[in-house]
Amino acid sequence: MTRIAYLGPAGTFTEQATRRWAVERGADLPTGTGPDAQPEPSVPAAVEALRSGRADAAVVPFENSVEGSVPATLQALLQVGDDVRIVGEVLVEVQFSLLVRPGRADEPVRTVASHPHAFAQTRDWLDARLPGARQVPESSTAAAAQAVAEGRYDAAVAAPGAAEAYGLTAAARHIADREGAVTRFVVLRSGAAAPPATGSDRTTLVALIWQNRPGALLELLEQFATRGIDLSRLESRPTGEGLGEYCFWIDADAHLSEPRMREALIGLRRTCRDVRFFGSYPRADGRASVVPAHAGADTYAEALRWVNTLDRGPADAAG
Ligand SMILES: O=C(O)C(=O)C[C@]1(C(=O)O)C=C[C@@H](O)C=C1
């Protein structure tokens, strides 16, 4: 049985991602009675469940199409050891409802709870409809729904499905400021090799460049550009070591097994202060990686064969 830790409690978007992962990739999971989804109270707790061996995999939110990356996840990944790797990703379309206790749909709302990312995606709606309500951050949208069921708050911004999980009712539906928002969740495993390349892959890295070195960022980007690797995400985040100290989170559209990616990693390792590799894994949207003619594995192999001939003298080479 595969035990999967996820940001809980039941009813989070992360739970939806976990179930989708288990169904879609069922064949990848060891056989048994099926995945055992373990709700955890926070992202660090889900990662810790994996690290300590209480879980075989962990599913955590990574980035949202409206609100950007999830800081708790980036932080937890930076703190965990090198053996924890991203082995897959899941996309979930997020929709929000305003959930209240049954019979209270028309009552005034003085307190509304949710996850900060959910507040950020419903800001305009909340400002327009509940301008006086105090917004209380909770560890997840489902934790907020649970707290409403317990009578701690008047309302929660949560996934529609959380209503059923906690015996609540929707006072309003589709309250996101932007329809069609999508959250990307990542699946983590400990001590796992990268899944094989599919032709639609992503590699997630963090690079720490040398401070006060003019052109250091350009040099970093060149490692990818000259090798024909498209970047789908580049984000600078503070390292916590002091003002102006930043690291760069990178999603590169190539797989570790490709020569162009290996060379880029060698280049990064040579030129950066530090590089963390978080994994190469299939993209959930299946979009094929772009491989320019000069960056394909065959081109690398041919160029390597050629350079190896140069060791021999011209006469040898001719013969
Ligand atoms: O609270 C949840 O339901 C989560 O799964 C977390 C999370 C997030 O961290 O962004 C996931 C998707 C939504 O964007 C809002 C919250």
From TrEMBL:
Q: Where is this site: Essential for prephenate dehydratase activity?
A: 183
| Biological process according to GO | L-phenylalanine biosynthetic process
Q: Which GO CC annotations does the UniProt entry carry?
A: cytoplasm
- Encoding gene (name): pheA
Question: Superkingdom of the source?
Answer: Bacteria
What is the name of this protein? Prephenate dehydratase
Keywords, ordered alphabetically:
Amino-acid biosynthesis, Aromatic amino acid biosynthesis, Lyase, Phenylalanine biosynthesis
Q: Name one Pfam family in it.
A: PDT
**Carries keyword Acyltransferase?**
no
Q: Which organism is it from?
A: Ornithinimicrobium avium
Q: Which reaction does it catalyse?
A: prephenate + H(+) = 3-phenylpyruvate + CO2 + H2O
The enzyme's E.C. designation: 4.2.1.51
Q: Where is the Prephenate dehydratase domain?
A: 3-190
SUPFAM superfamilies per UniProt: ACT-like, Periplasmic binding protein-like II
Per its UniProt entry, what is the enzyme's top EC class, as one word?
lyase
Domain (ACT) spans: 205-282
Q: Please list the GO terms describing molecular function.
A: prephenate dehydratase activity
> Which pathway does this chain act in?
Amino-acid biosynthesis; L-phenylalanine biosynthesis; phenylpyruvate from prephenate: step 1/1
Q: List the InterPro entries.
A: ACT-like_dom_sf, ACT_dom, Chor_mutase/pphenate_deHydtase, Preph_deHydtase, Preph_deHydtase_CS
Secretion signal span: none
